[in-house]
Amino acid sequence: MLNSSRFCILPLVAVMGALTGGCVASLDSEDGAYDVEGVDDAADALMVQRSNRWRDIEREGNRRGFHTTSTYRGHHNPGSAHYEGRAVDFRSRDHTRAEGDRFMREMRGLGYHVIDERDRPAGRVWSGPHIHVEDRRR
Q: How far is CA 64 from CA 23, 69, 80, 98, 102, in A?
């Protein structure tokens, strides 16, 4: 007799935002052998979901003359919005202090949370002077 179990490893609710009871990725077991199904599709679905958030931030920053240095990839602090595709870092070294201040005001005016990391923050991962902009909407 075959003993079959199916475990949802990425609930569809995480991708679609509504309770569907389905799975994008699953772990199937038949006689103790596990097969992972749909992981590539799940990763793609999550990227589609989150890509628009960081792209909107990036577009606004680039339109204001600030160069993107980091989005959802790279090394960031634990729990960073970067890992969820909700944050972008912009290089500040080729802008005056006043230009950086104006940029931060404008991004805040668009509803983004802005962290001035032009100076190294104590005890945090830091790759150089930049301005961190994130979308805090969940």
A: 40, 15, 24, 13, 10
Is the Cβ–Cβ distance between 122 and 103 less than 8 Å? no
Q: pLDDT at position 128, please?
A: 81
Structure tokens at 82: 């970067």
In angstroms and rounded to an integer, the radius of gyration of the C-alpha atoms of the chain is 20
pLDDT digits (tens, 9 = 90+) for 88-109: 999 999 999 999 999 999 999 9
* DSSP, residue by residue, 58-127: HHHHHHTT--EEESSSS---TT-GGGGT-EEEEE-TTS-HHHHHHHHHHHHHTT-EEEEESSPPTTS---
pTM of the predicted structure, to 2 decimals: 0.62
Task: For residue 8, give the 3-state DSSP assignment.
Answer: strand
Percent of the chain with pLDDT over 90: 38
